[in-house]
Amino acid sequence: MRFNEKELVCLSRQPSEMAAELGMRGPKKGDVVKRRLVKLVVNFLFYFRTDEEEPVGALLLEQCRVEREDTQTFSIAFLDDAERKYLFECDSEEQCKEWIDSIIKASYEFMRRNLIFYRTEIHRLTGKDPLEQYGISDETRFQVNSGSQLMARDTSSL
Amino acid sequence: MKLNERSVAHYATCDSPPDKTGFLFKKGERNTAYHRRWFVLKGNMLFYFEERDGREPIGVIVLEGCTVELCESAEEFAFAVKFDCAKARVYKLAADSQAAMESWVKALSRASFDYMRLVVKELERQLEEIQDAAGAGGQQARPKPQRRHQVARSRSGASSSSSSSSSSLSSSSSAPSMTAVCSAPRSLQDEAQLVSGGSRENGVAWSKAPAGGSAEAAPSCVSWDGSTDSGIVSGCGPDEGRAPPVPPRRFGASLESPVSPDTGCFSKLHDWYGREVEELRAQWLQSQ
């Protein structure tokens, strides 16, 4: 599958939510733990060899599951192949928690759910759709149910 | 650079609802002819398939940081997806009609994660403002009382539109620029937490990301229970001599409030709710 690699590399240089050197192990049998600079940018997790400009790789964080493996280790697995886990070893329990929390929040889908929640709540409290003034109330991505329009039809909350 | 391609391809075809789909012509890189492809937009990823029912995408354009422009082209209804980085490729696309072109340009220019994040932040801020003004902590009070906007609004009822509310929102200095721009704004640096603890505390199941997961299920239907809201108790005179608080307002069916009628002071109420929420949050976190 083709992808715009140059632009993705460029994205990896943007300011990040979180970045740290962690021990990282790939999902394949025989993969060993390697020290990597791990950087979270929007919904991508980039990993670099320390001191290298270009990332070794990137993980798109959609449709994934983040789990605590032990006190200082977390894993990321993708729903299409839940057994294949990428493992990350942190330096402390605190750091591990922070990473898990950040990665969970790093998906577009997660944000979408929050947006829908706030939109619905504001509408319920004020009777107004907060997205209207921005001209984006009709966009599919902001609907409560895929495709259907909450604001036009749902007056039960008023 | 490696990418978890298999999972990315799976994201394209899994049952999470796409933001937009349709046929577009895409100009080839070496072969400069336009090829008709089936496009699927999900979040900040624009996938393209050889055919509409293709099992796997031929490719994907990561849209983060892009700008979308109409372009001068022999091809009708053409537009371009451009990036700000050195030697970036320009993706030239063309739609079937003016309407389709406009619709795609609009969708693609707002597809970035950053844009979504800004919108969420803005709504979060608005909700907080509304809650602060109304004096109800409810389930969503943030445990940080410093950031409080005392906005005086007059409202005649739940459904009437109030002109003062929109002006106060747009004049807030913290509101990001939300006019329809073709390029998604750059990320805000201070976004340590995308979502306030409030979304996790909400008793409604939809918002709980399972301890392990993100986006395991498609955005589910939400059943809102309007009657859980307590009535709003008006505050006492504000401490700093600002405008008087809003008069009591019924949001839900009942006027019952866990707070005794004697608790007239707004800031006390706010703190009380804030503490209660903190406790609930701690309990919830422990149970995870």
TrEMBL record, chain A:
One of its GO terms (cellular component) is trans-Golgi network. Coiled coil: none annotated. CDD domains: PH_PLEKHJ1. Residues 15-108 form the PH domain. SMART domains: PH (SM00233). One of its GO terms (biological process) is retrograde transport, endosome to Golgi. It comes from the Eukaryota. InterPro entries: Boi1/Boi2-like, PH-like_dom_sf, PH_domain. This is Pleckstrin homology domain-containing family J member 1. It comes from Fundulus heteroclitus.
